[in-house]
Amino acid sequence: MGYQGLRISTRRLGVGEAVVCASHQPKLARKAGKPIARTAGDEVCSRLGPMSRISENLAEQVGAEESSDQGSGVLQAIVLLLLVAYLYHSILWQLVRHWWQDPNFSHGFFVPFFAGYVLWEKRKKLAALPVSPSFFWGLIIVTGSLCVLVVGVLGVELFLSRTSFIFLLAGLTIYFFGWQHFREAQFPWGSLFLMVPIPAIIFNQIAFPLQLLASKLASWLLAWMSVPVLREGNVLKLPAMTLEVVQACSGIRSLMSLVTLAVIYGCFMESRVIRRVILVLAAVPIAILANGLRVVGTGLLVHYWNPAKAEGFFHTFEGWVIFVLSLTMLFSFHGLMNLTDRWRARRTS
């Protein structure tokens, strides 16, 4: 290869590539059996050699800096997780114990797994989004969450301390990843509130009206079935026994569980938000009606069979049967919605 050819190759190739070509030229000449003669290309190669070594050193330094940045990022994430675990380990443990001890909120065990599954299904969309951290708003939300935690701990208000953890997750997501990631994960994040038991003062304000409503519905249905009954508030007086619709029979347990299941069912079975909202709203009257039917069933057992059957196994078994009935009613309502949409589609087509 002559000098002109070598000069053209150095223009077309990179610096490192031109050096490699020139350095391999003597080897190629030996393989071809040609005499080795020093050309101007060798002189160019000798001058460009130090530059190639400098570029290699710079590349190694850049790679070392990137690996060190990744290592420091992992270390910072571990420190952050340990700090959050230190702040919330006792609060989350008390929350799990609450789920286990209070049947009204036993559905809380399923909520974190549901949220994690939805996030896993969205992993490709989340990975495709650009990372644009919002340090200002993320820091404000994190600071507000910690303030709510302090107020909840000092005021012994479990609802505030537990919900502060959910708000902290939102603040950290916005701080490190940005608003786009939070909007994409907004639904599973919002579903986490279903796992937090509502405050006792709100619980009682909801439970007592449900007790009265269940007793009214049961007394009306029992009278319609020719069963003599006298209602005084939430107390039903039958000839064989007096039934009291206590807080455990108010239906709030089935109401909260059915609303949670409606959210999960709507997420998997419906793609439109408005239909998901309709399913969740429909779960409320379905749960109230089902609980009224449970009280009616208890009254029928007392009147036609044995007053002792109103307690114990039959009472618990009746609760499971009524809950299955409420699920069936929810699924039937969803099927009715689908049939209505098909009828409208046929009518317009």
Short description:
The chain has 13 helices and 3 strands.
Structure write-up:
By secondary structure, this protein is an all-alpha fold. The chain has three domains: 1-87; 102-195, no CATH class; 200-348, no CATH class. Helix content is 77%, strand content 3%. The protein is built from 13 helices and three strands, in the order ααααααααααβββααα. It has helices at 3-12, 15-32, 40-101, 110-121, 123-128, 135-154, 158-176, 179-184, 186-191, 200-224, 252-269, 273-304, 313-348; strands at residues 230-232, 235-237, 242-244. A three-stranded antiparallel sheet has the order 1-2-3, with helices on one face. The longest helix is centred in the first third of the chain and has 62 residues, at 40-101. The termini are far apart. Residues 1-38 have low confidence and may be disordered.
Question: Could you outline the blueprint of secondary structure elements for this entry?
Answer:
Blueprint: H1 3-12, H2 15-32, H3 40-101, H4 110-121, H5 123-128, H6 135-154, H7 158-176, H8 179-184, H9 186-191, H10 200-224, E1 230-232, E2 235-237, E3 242-244, H11 252-269, H12 273-304, H13 313-348
Helix pairs in contact: 1-2, 2-3, 3-7, 6-7, 10-12, 11-12, 12-13
Which short descriptors sum up this protein?
3 domains, 349 residues, disordered N terminus, mainly alpha
Structural class: mainly alpha
Residue windows where pLDDT falls under 50 for at least 5 positions: 1-38
Helix content: over 70%
Number of helices: 13
Task: List SSEs in N-to-C order.
Answer: HHHHHHHHHHEEEHHH
The fraction of residues in strands falls at under 5%
Largest sheet: 3 strands, antiparallel
How do the strands of the widest beta sheet line up side by side?
1-2-3
Mean pLDDT: 79
How many separate domains?
Answer: 3
* Measured distance between first and last alpha carbons: 77 Å
CA radius of gyration:
35 Å
Global geometry? globular
